[in-house]
Amino acid sequence: MHAPVVIADHLRTPENMGALIRLADNIGALEVIFLGEAIQKISRIKYAAASSAGNIPWRFSQETNMGKIVPFGYKVVALETAAGAVSIFDAVLPECMVLIVGNERTGICGQILEQADMAVYIPVPGPTRSLNVSHAAAVLLFEWFRQMNLRLLMNF
C-alpha cells in the first residue's frame, strides 16, 4: 500500500491545518502540502498538530500545477461537491492517492479542481451540507484505508 499525500487548498485556520497534519500522521501519509503563502501562526499549527508536527513532513507551496508537486504515478482525488463528483460509498479510490481538500468557505478553487483525476463527496443527510475540512478528510482517508485493506485481503 502506498502512503497518500494530503494537499489543502488555501486553508484559513491554523487549527484546521494542525488537525490535517495530525490526521495525515495517523493514516501514515507521505506528506501534507498547504497551497498558498505560509501563515504567521506556525505555533498554533504545531499546537493543534501536537507531536505529529515533527512526525510527518509538511510545507507551504504557492505552486498550482499539480504535475509539479504530485508524486509520479499518483492520482489526484478532490474531496468536493463538484459537478460529476461520486459518492465515497461508490468511488473506487486509487491506491496511489493525493487527496485535495479545499478552503473552509470556498472549497477547492476551479484551477486546482480541473486538475483532479476524480472528485468525490461525502453524502450528508442533515440540513448542514458540509463538514469541517479535517473531519471530511478523515472520512475519506479512512475510507481509502478500508478499501486498500479489502484489496489486500482479496488478493490472498
Question: Could you please describe the fold and organization of this structure?
Answer:
This protein has 156 residues and is an alpha/beta fold. It has one domain (5-154): Alpha/beta knot (3-Layer(aba) Sandwich), CATH 3.40.1280. It has helices at 14-27, 42-49, 66-69, 110-113, 133-154, and strands at residues 5-9, 31-35, 58-61, 75-79, 86-87, 97-101, 118-121. Strands 3-2-1-6-4-7-5 form a 7-stranded parallel sheet, with helices on one face. Helix 2 (42-49) links the parallel strand 2 and strand 3 (58-61). Helix 1 (14-27) runs parallel beside helix 2 and helix 1 (14-27) runs parallel beside helix 5 (133-154). The longest helix is centred in the last third of the chain and has 22 residues, at 133-154. It starts with a strand and ends with a helix. The mean pLDDT is 94.
